[in-house]
Design goal:
By secondary structure, the protein is an all-alpha fold. It contains 10 helices and no strands.
Length: about 240
């Protein structure tokens, strides 16, 4: 199963790198910009994870195959630029959802096998799945998906919790991976399809109760209307 986890990690790098290439095309970047966006998206989250966990060197330094995979993804994308440029706008969120699900499993798994607590493993899964996409969107001058209304980091958290719970109960690794992938991917795709979102909270100005208001005081809309009337009275009439 170690080989399965490794190839899942490679698949996540490819999918995230492809999403970076697509966003670079839409942002009209040059080939170098495409490479930077693909690399940041593909290995950015895992790099931050390894730095937080104290892993030296980080995974792509000890195994340069990740870098070659990113280069190959960008090269193939350049050859098929016209096809990638015509991809539907729905493809980028879907590809991002697959990368999010794969990286959530990888990050959670890596923290658990290093002996960290379940809550730390879940946070590492979220970081692995979310950080690369955040860096990609910031470089492309877009609001990161994790900060938008739709469910994103919550889906990664749910998938990480499922994986950590099954790992704690000594479930087969294949079952834990499949359940976590289905949870994260299902929630994210459902959010894309039906625009599911968490509730929003904002500061709201509340008018004072009538008992606390001064007698004869006007409300804000009434004050605005009264001000307009006063301006109209004070404005000199034009002579005909």
């Amino acid at each position: 199963m170690t080989g399965v986890v490794y190839w899942l990690d490679m698949a996540g790098v490819i999918v995230f790198a492809l999403s970076g290439v697509i966003l670079a095309c839409r942002s009209r970047m040059d080939p170098f910009g495409m490479l930077v966006l693909a690399a940041v998206t593909g290995i950015g989250g895992g790099t931050l994870r390894d730095l937080v966990l104290g892993i030296r060197p980080v995974f792509w330094v000890s195994d340069p195959a990740y870098l070659w995979v990113i280069l190959l993804t960008v090269g193939v994308s350049l050859l098929g630029f016209h096809y990638i440029h015509r991809l539907s706008r729905r493809f980028l969120p879907v590809a991002d959802a697959f990368g999010l699900a794969l990286f959530t499993v990888i990050g959670t798994h890596k923290a658990l096998i290093l002996g960290h607590a379940g809550v730390v493993a879940v946070l590492m899964g979220i970081m692995t799945g979310v950080a690369g996409g955040m860096l990609r969107d910031v470089l492309a001058q877009r609001v990161p998906m994790v900060l938008r209304e739709e469910i994103y980091a919550t889906a990664a958290m749910a998938g990480g919790i499922v994986y950590a719970a099954l790992y704690a109960f000594s479930a087969p690794l294949g079952v834990a991976i499949g359940a976590s992938l289905c949870t994260t991917l299902g929630l994210r795709l459902a959010a894309i399809r039906w625009h599911l979102a968490l509730p929003q909270f904002a500061w709201v100005s509340v008018a004072p109760p009538e008992s606390d208001a001064e007698p004869g005081a006007l409300s804000t809309p009434e004050k605005a209307k009264e001000r307009v009337r006063m301006i109209r009275r004070e404005r000199p009439r034009r002579r005909r």
